Amino acid sequence: MIPPTNSSMERERAVVTGLLLLQLILWLGFAVHRSPRFPGSLPGTLLGISGAILMVVPSFAYVAAKRSPALRRRLGARLPLRRLLAWHIWGGILGSLLAILHTGHRFESTLGLVLTGAMLFVIFSGYVGRHFLARVSLDLREKQGLLERLTTAYNEMAGRLAAQPGLLGTLRESRARSPLQSRLLAWSRSVPDPEAYALAKGATELAGSIADLEYGIGTDELLRRRFRIWLLVHVLASVVFYGLLALHIWASVYFGLRWLV
Question: What is the percentage of the chain residues whose pLDDT exceeds 70?
Fold first, then answer.
């Protein structure tokens, strides 16, 4: 699976953010518009059914493929997990927009209010989890690649300094304890060989960069582990939302659809 690039993530984030702002504007429309009979009308019902299908079907397909290696192997390259995730994201956003239109801004029943609140929270938590975690993962991959390149350059410099045991020993010490960089620089200035001094200075700067990168990588890994709690919250909120949605559909069928009467 090819990881998303920075530019593609930025484009996706811009489009999704615009759609979420549109959803917020539509939701706040209850202050100026209310149509109590629209949710049970034919157009309102079609909007509700379409929104439910968009929110439910791609989500269940993504979860099933993610949790079932056998199904994932059967789908193969035709429907990779990344494409199913994209369908899950776009289906959830577009389906929630249709759901807001379906309400006709009729927020009178307790079930409707709770269902709408749960839907908005699921969309928001998914948005934060998707883009924040993706950003951390992308930064982590970039830092790990840069760390490999800097480590290679550092080892090459250390190899060139191998003929000078005293300088190399101090260099290794500075690699393990970054505060000794200043001591190494002060010591290397006394070395008469300009090339050895330049190598020592360059290796010391690399040691500092490597230490900073290692600290940043550790921080990103910690954030990624901690942020999985947020994804768990998103999953639990989704389970609650789908339960409320099923209850809402049952109530609509039980009490009748006005346009069929």
Answer: 76
Domain parsing of the chain, residue ranges: 145-213
In this predicted model, what pLDDT tens digit does every residue of 133-184 receive, in sequence order?
777 777 888 888 888 888 888 787 777 766 665 555 555 544 444 444 555 5
Coil/strand/helix, residue 57: helix
- Tell me how far the alpha carbon of residue 87 is from its chain's centroid: 15
pTM for the model: 0.64
Eight-class DSSP state of 61: H
Which amino acid is present at 88?
Answer: H
What does the DSSP assignment read for 172-183?
A: HHHHH-GGGHHH
Element (H, E) at 228: helix 194-255
Q: Which of 251, 252, 39, 20 is nearest to 131 (CA)?
A: 20
Residue 109 burial (C-beta neighbours within 10 Å; 0-12, 13-18, 19+): exposed
Query: Any residues with CB less than 8 A from the CB of 167 and at least 6 apart, and which?
Result: 161, 187, 188, 191, 196, 200
d(CA 98, CA 95): 5
Q: Given CA atoms 40, 42, 43, 46 in this order, what sign does their dihedral have?
A: positive
**Cα separations in angstroms, 103 against 45, 163, 202:** 9, 78, 65
Gap between the Cα atoms of 100 and 29, Å rounded: 10
